[in-house]
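Customer ticket, subject: "Can you confirm the structure for Potassium-transporting ATPase potassium-binding subunit?"

Message body: Hello, I'm evaluating your service for our small team and ran a test protein. I'd like someone to confirm that this is what the system normally returns, since I don't have a reference to compare against.
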Amino acid sequence: MWLLPAMLILAAIACSIPLSAYFTWLMEGRYRAPRVLKWFEDLVDTGPQDWKQYTIALIVFNIALFIFGFVVLSLQPYAPLNPRGLGWLEPTTIFNTVISFLTNTNLQHYAGETALSNFSQIFFILPNMFLSASVGFCALAAIIRLFRGAEKCGNFFVDMWRVCMYIYVPVALLFGIIFMQQGMPMTYASTEVATTLEQGSMGLDDKGQAKPQTIVVGPVAAVIPIKMLGTNGGGFYGMNSAHPLENPTATTNFFTTLAMMLFPFALVLMYGRMLGRIRHSVVIYGVMLAMMIGLIAWVIRTDTMEPNPGLTAHAATAWQVPSASAPSGKLDVPSPAVAALPVNQHLGNLEGKELRFGTSAGAAFAAITTDVTCGAINAEMDSLNPLSGLSPMIGMWLNCVFGGKGVGMINLLLFLIVGVFLAGQMVGRTPEYLGRKVGAREMKLAMIALLVHPILILGPAGLFAATGWGTTAEANPGAHGFSEIVYQFSSSSANNGSAMDGLGVTYGLNANASPSPEAVPWDIATGLVMLFARYLPIIAPIAMAFSLGRKKVAPVTLGTMSDDTVTFGFLLFGTIAIVGALLFLPVAALGPIAEHLGPIPFGG
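Agent reply: Thanks for trying us out. I re-ran your input and got the following:
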C-alpha cells in the first residue's frame, strides 16, 4: 500500500538532482548546439529582452497559438486522418478546448476518442502540450535572471527553443519507447475491429448479426509521454490513465506517475543552482516535499484504508434545524436508517478505482496529479471518500506543492515574499529577500498574483452554486454537488484539468442532439478562468522580480534572516498553511467536510 508512493517519491528525488544540473547548463547557455539546430536557434534569437519585451513576446506567442488551435479544430471535418468522419465540436467547446491546452490546463469537456480525429490529436493536442508546458519553464528562468539583478532576462523564443528541443523532445522520446514496449498503441490508424468472446455483447446489426467491437486507436504513445512530462494531463481517451490502452501495465503506471513528478521536482533545485543558493532551494524543496507526503498520506489513509460511506449502514438519526414556524423555534428532521450493501470493503473504498495497479495507486495518483498541477487521472475523483477529496483540492488551492513546471515555483515565491514581509514586520525590520529589501511595490505585485487564484475559484463557484448553471449540472445535490462545482473551478484556476465527473458539462460534437443542458455556460466560464489564472500570476511575478532585482544588495548583519535554515522552512510552511486556510477553509467546510459529517443540516 505504501510501497508505490514511497518508490515514486524516492525515484523523483534521485532523478531531480542530475536533471536540475542539466536544466541549469541549458538555460545558462553553456551548451554547444549541433550546426543544424544552432542555425534555427540563431534564427529565432531576436536579442536580449528586458522584462517588458519578454512578457510581450510570451503573450504574442500565446495569442498566435490560440489562433492556430482554433483553426486546426475548426478544420477537423475537412482534414485528413479522419476516417470516422468526425465533425465539429460545438463552438464554445472549441473555445474552451483551445484555451485549455493553450494554458497547460487540459480540462476536457469532451471525450478524446469520440470527439477528436487523429488529425486534431497530432496537429493540435501534441504541439500545444510541448509549447504550453514550456511557457512556465521559461517564465521561471526569466524571473531567476531578474533576481540576479540582470537588466535583460534572456530571450523568450530562445528559451522556448531550448526547453522544447533539448529537454522535452528527448525525454519524451525515451518515455515513448518504454510505453510502446509495454503495449501502448502508436499508429495512424483510427480504429481496430475485434470479435468479442461473448457473441452479441456489442448488440446486433440490422441483419441480426452480432456486431464486432470497434476499438479507437491512434498515436497514443506520442501523446502520453508529453502529457505527463509537461504536466498537461489531457488524455487521448476519456478515461485518461485508467484506460488500458493509455496505461496498459503497472510499469507504465509507475513511469507515467514518475514522469509528471520529474520536472516540477528538478526546477526547484534549478532555481537554487542558477541563483547560486542551492541550500536555499533545498529548504524550499523540503517544504514542498513535506506538503506532498502529507497530502498523499492523507488521501491513502482516508480512502484506501476506509470503506465507502455510501455502502455502509447508517443508524436512524434526527437533526434539529432552526425554523421560525416551529413552536420551539427548532424543527426535528428525521433521517431514516440505511442498510449496508453486501459489499466487502476490507480493502477500503474500491469504487471508481483501476485495480490493475494496486489498491493505493488511484489515491496516490489523485494527490500527486494535483500537487504538480498535471490533472491526469487513473481513478475517478468523484468516487473518493468525502474527506479524501480534500487532498486533491488542497493541492490545487495552494497551487505550490511543487506545482507545474516553473509556475509552481513562481507561486511559492509569492507565499515566500508574503512570509518574509510578515516576519520583517513582526521583528520591526525591513523585510529582505536575496539580500534586497522588499518594499510596497513588490508586495502589491505579489498580492495581486496571489489573490487572483482564490478570486477566480470562489467567485465563479459561488455564482454557479447559486444558479441553475450549477444546480442543473451537478449529479448530486447538497455538499457533494457543491464540491463538484468548487473542484471544477479549482482545477481551471490551478491549470490542473482534472475534474469530478459528476458534473454535466459536456456538449460534444456540434451535431449532438442531447448535450448537457448547462454545457455552454460551463465552457465559457471555465475558459475565462483558465485564461486569467494562467497569465496574471506569470506577468505580475516577472514584474516583481524586476523591481526587486534592481535594488542594491544590503550587507548581511546580525538582524538578517537567513533563507537556508530550518527556521526559514517553518516560516514558509506556516505562511502557506495560514494563508491557504484563511482563503479556503470556509469552502472546504461547506463541501467535503459537510459531506463527511452527515446529510442534514450539513449536506442539505
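A couple of notes from the result: The chain has 19 helices and six strands. The longest strand covers residues 317-322. Feel free to reply with more questions.
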